[in-house]
Amino acid sequence: MPQSQQEEDEGDVVEIVTTGDRDVVDEGHFSSESAKILIGEIMGCNRDLENIKQNVNDVQNKMKNIIDVLRRV
After folding, report:
1. Which end of the chain is more exposed for a tag (fewer CB within 10 A), N or C?
2. pLDDT of residue 34
3. Three-state secondary-structure class, residue 2
4. What is the DSSP string of 14-72?
């Protein structure tokens, strides 16, 4: 990889927003520990989204059942 391209790809990490009350990355510093924290945050968000999707599906099914009952009345 040409030096200029490598420098461009490895640009300084200026700031990554804090998650909760914990700083993920200090200015200008990114470590494997920081990456692990970010990956954990992504996994947590993904789990939360999956739970939300399941809850939406449950509510939709409940509504369909209620509508079916009302149609029979």
Report:
1. C
2. 85
3. coil
4. --B--BTTB-SB-TT---HHHHHHHHHHHHHHHHHHHHHHHHHHHHHHHHHHHHHHHHH
